[in-house]
């Protein structure tokens, strides 16, 4: 997501306290990672945020899309109109490497 600077702090707090907890109530949603960019490329008037949701399987993802997606998206659009933009990607497989897994 790209969030305008003036809304950034409030937006991130909303993600932590309301938006992500609401997603984790959706059947099949297991966990979420909130990623906040430190430095790096930024548009002058905005900052980037990424949320990675871990979903049990593709069937639960499809149920989310058909039954929950619009309602959850609308909350952000109502609370922060014109203050952010979002793109979505679906990655069906993650291979983890490292000693801490």
TrEMBL record:
InterPro entries, per database record: DUF4286
Name of one Pfam family that matches: DUF4286
Name this polypeptide is given: DUF4286 family protein
Organism of provenance: Bdellovibrio svalbardensis
Record lineage: Bacteria, Pseudomonadati, Bdellovibrionota, Bdellovibrionia, Bdellovibrionales
């Amino acid at each position: 997501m790209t969030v305008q600077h003036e809304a950034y702090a409030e937006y991130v707090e909303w993600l932590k306290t309301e938006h992500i907890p609401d997603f984790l109530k959706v059947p099949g949603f297991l966990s979420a990672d909130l990623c906040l960019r430190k430095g790096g490329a930024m548009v002058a008037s905005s900052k980037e945020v990424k949320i990675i949701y871990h979903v049990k399987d593709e069937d639960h993802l499809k149920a989310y899309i058909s039954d929950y997606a619009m309602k959850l998206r609308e909350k952000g659009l109502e609370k922060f109109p014109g203050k952010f933009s979002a793109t979505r990607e679906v990655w069906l497989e993650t291979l983890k490497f490292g000693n801490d897994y």
